[in-house]
Amino acid sequence: MTADTRDRNVTAMAAVGFALSWAVGLTVFSSSTSVRSTGAAVIDTFAVHQDPAIVQYVFTEGIPAITLAVVVFGLARFANMTDRLRLILTTCGLGAAAVSSVECALGIHLVGWVVPRADDDAAGMLFDAINRLDGVKMILLAAAAGVTVMLARDGALPRWMLLPAIALVVTILISGVGYLFLLSGPAVFAWASLPLLIMWVLSTGFVLRKSHVSPAMADYTA
Asked: Where are the transmembrane segments (predicted)?
């Protein structure tokens, strides 16, 4: 097995890990697109579900941060693109992974330390901060997915990736605005953007694993 083949396999496994981690996280504790809640309501919600809530933060923010970073690195390495697009992809993709890690840490702190102290003000501020960070993460992911739209459009990635990537950019950008500014209406688009995000990560891993970067794609210079 060559080093390239090994690294492609690692990228593909990370993509599968991203999807499985989200599946576990959404199973252990209920999920919601509500972006506005009082500190007292946050405490009431998490007080009797501390362990599942902590597990959810780990599996929806912590592990996905690591696996997303691996997939972004793989895409930047193996897909032919200009230096400008590679910079956008890595900056936004890895930025989103970093934000997700921060969300995980804040979520664990919220559930494990703030909630037991019944500190309404701190709980409300932390909950709002996590939601706003989620908005930043979504907007960064929209930019990263936008790179794949350009690559698929111009033949540097398979054409079948184009429409799902466009759908992801649109929905995750809208939901990102909702979370960033705590707007309930746009935030509900997360129900559409999340499965599209998982599909995007999985399809990227599949494409790189199958070496679908063809000789024709190697001529991409746009």
From this structure: 12-34, 54-75, 87-115, 135-153, 160-182, 188-208
